[in-house]
Amino acid sequence: MDEDKSIVVTDLTKKFKNFTAVDHVSFAVKKGEIFGFLGANGAGKTTTIRMLCGLLLPTSGSAQIVGYDVITQSKEIKKHIGYMSQKFSLYDDLTVMENMELFGTIYGVEKNVLRKKILSIIARLQMRDYATTRVSNLPLGRKQKLMFATAILHNPDVVFLDEPTSGVDPIVRREFWNMIYETAERGVSILVTTHYMDEAEYCNRLCIMENGQIKIVGNPSDLKEQTHSENMSEVFQKIINREK
């Protein structure tokens, strides 16, 4: 595996009986790159991420995360990745601090390091006043930021974000993307799924998916130039419509 690449995927396929959710997908993601999956619900974005995280076994094809095989070395992969799912996955009845302590322990962060990291993250998120607040009482935007902060608590090499800003307002979405940029600048590879066309502009590179297949891959500027489009919404419509 190329040392410059954190993710290498070759002909990855997932079938559920007679339905092909992901159909021979191939791509690679560099260290520190923000790579986006753009597509409608049901395009295959989440299924792809779940296979790369070791949560679903591929039907065929191969994938490596920082050199580890997703089929034979899924336990090793889980030590090197962070994952933020579409559904809220923290514990509502625990406080902000308690959630971070719990997940930090699960991730194997040493106790003498964990407390300092948590306090630093809470300060950076401007959530000192919420440290002892139950997560159920947090506004949605702060919950999303907390989920992301928890996913990177153990300094993973790769972070998977599945529709991370779904349901939050544009200001919170922009703040969330600032967190993504800061993380990528530290050399962490980010694979993010979204159906927001403006968010596609924030990615270094992205692919457009439909019916389990990747239709095109490139950086936003190149894709707009190739399709003679003014924005990613136009790009998306042209790519999807030309396949029909």
Q: How are the SSEs placed, and which strands pair?
A:
Layout: E1 5-16, E2 19-30, E3 34-38, H1 45-52, E4 60-65, E5 68-69, H2 74-80, E6 81-84, H3 96-106, H4 111-124, H5 140-151, E7 158-162, H6 170-185, E8 189-194, H7 197-200, E9 205-210, E10 213-218, H8 220-226, H9 232-242
What does this structure look like?
With 244 residues, this protein is of the alpha/beta class. Helices cover 37% and strands 26% of the residues. The chain is built from 9 helices and 10 strands. The chain has helices spanning 45-52, 74-80, 96-106, 111-124, 140-151, 170-185, 197-200, 220-226, 232-242, and strands spanning 5-16, 19-30, 34-38, 60-65, 68-69, 81-84, 158-162, 189-194, 205-210, 213-218. A 6-stranded mixed beta sheet has the order 6-7-8-3-9-10, sandwiched between helices. A 4-stranded antiparallel beta sheet has the order 2-1-4-5, with helices on one face. Helix 3 (96-106) crosses helix 4 (111-124). It is globular and about 50 Å long. The two termini are 36 Å apart. 37% of the residues are buried. The model has no long low-confidence stretch (mean pLDDT 91).
Structural class: alpha/beta
Largest sheet: 6 strands, mixed
Regions with little confidence, pLDDT below 50 for 5+ residues? none
Mean pLDDT: 91
Order of helices and strands: EEEHEEHEHHHEHEHEEHH
Strand order, largest beta sheet: 6-7-8-3-9-10
Number of helices: 9
Approximate strand percentage: 25-35%
Q: Distance between the terminal alpha carbons, to the nearest Å?
A: 36 Å
Query: Which shape, going by the Cα principal axes?
Result: globular
Radius of gyration over C-alpha positions, nearest whole angstrom:
18 Å
How many β-strand runs? 10
The percent range for helix content is 25-40%
